[in-house]
Fold this sequence. Notes:
Elements: E1 5-16, E2 19-25, E3 41-48, E4 51-58, E5 69-73, H1 79-86, E6 93-96, E7 112-118, H2 122-135, E8 140-147, H3 156-165, E9 169-175, E10 183-185, H4 190-200, E11 208-213, H5 215-227, E12 235-239, H6 246-249, E13 256-263, E14 266-273, H7 278-284, E15 302-307, E16 310-312, H8 320-324, E17 327-329, E18 333-335, E19 339-343
Parallel strand pairs: 7-8, 7-11, 8-9, 9-10, 11-12, 13-19
Antiparallel strand pairs: 1-2, 1-6, 2-5, 3-4, 3-6, 13-14, 15-17, 15-19, 16-18
Pfam families: FAD_binding_6, Fer2, NAD_binding_1
Domain 2Fe-2S ferredoxin-type: 257-347
Keywords: 2Fe-2S, FAD, Flavoprotein, Iron, Iron-sulfur, Metal-binding, Oxidoreductase
Amino acid sequence: xxxxxxxxxxxxxxxxxxxxxxxxxxxxxxxxxxxxxxxxxxxxxxxxxxxxxxxxxxxxxxxxxxxxxxxxxxxxxxxxxxxxxxxxxxxxxxxxxxxxxxxxxxxxxxxxxxxxxxxxxxxxxxxxxxxxxxxxxxxxxxxxxxxxxxxxxxxxxxxxxxxxxxxxxxxxxxxxxxxxxxxxxxxxxxxxxxxxxxxxxxxxxxxxxxxxxxxxxxxxxxxxxxxxxxxxxxxxxxxxxxxxxxxxxxxxxxxxxxxxxxxxxxxxxxxxxxxxxxxxxxxxxxxxxxxxxxxxxxxxxxxxxxxxxxxxxxxxxxxxxxxxxxxxxxxxxxxxxxxxxxxxxxx
Length: 347
C-alpha cells in the first residue's frame, strides 16, 4: 500500500522559465519519516483537473538542511509538470510519499566524485554535491552539466556561487544551442568525457561517478568510463526514461493469466490479459499497489514473482541477480504463464 502524507507548499522558486523548485512544509511529527539520503526522490500525488496523478521527483536539498525540496521542469504533455510549473501556489495542499530510491551518495573523507548531468538531471546531483562539499572538506566533487542554453540551466547562479566558495568543487557547463564564455559548446559525449577524465582532470583519481539524464547520455558516458578502466560497480546512474527491450517484449502473447497479488497480508486473485502490465491490471481491480513514475525508471512499484513468470519490457534499475530472484518492476512487467503470484510485501 502506498502511504501519502498531506502537506502544504511552503515556497516556490522559478529556477528557469520552465522549471521551479518546490519546498514542502514537512508534516508535523513526521520529520523521521522524511529523512533521506542525497540522491533519493519522493512521489507527489495531486488531483489535477479531476484526475489523481502521481509523479516522482528527486530531492534537491540536503539531508542536513532540514528542508524537503524538489525541482520540477515542464515537459511536453506532462500533466503534473505543466501543472506544477504554471498553477501550483504557495499554501496549496499536496500529498507526498516518504523518500525512496537507490541512486544515493553518502560522502566519505578523501574521496573524489565526478558527476555528469543533463537538464533536470541536476536535481539529485545538486543534493549530492552540496552534501559532499558541506560535510567532507577532504573530498572533491567535479560536475559536468549539459543544457541547451544558459537560460535553461537550472541552479546556474547557485552552482557558480559554490564554485567560488569551494576550491574542491570543479564545474563545467556545456551548452548545445549557444556559445557562452563560461560554457563549452556541444553535448556530453564520448569526446568530452575523455577530455575531462584523461586531460583536464587527469591528476584526479575519481572514486565514483554519478550520471543523471537522458538514456543516450547515460550509456555514452558509462561506456566511455568503462573503456577508461573505471570500475563499473562505481558508476551509478538514474535515467529520465528508458527504451523498450524488444527481445523481452516479443515474449508477450495475447493470452490470459490468473494472477494472485499479496499486499498488506491480503491476497487478491483475478484474471488479466498478458498484454496488460501487472500494475495497470492491479489498479483496475482496486488493488492499492505502490507506484510512481510508471515509466520503469524508479522502483516504487517493486514486486516479487513467487510463482509463474513475467517479463519486463523496460528495466534500468534491477540487477541481473535481483531479476533472477524474481523481482520485477510491475509497471513494466507482463505475465507469460497461465498462473502467476506477485508478492508486494516481501520486497
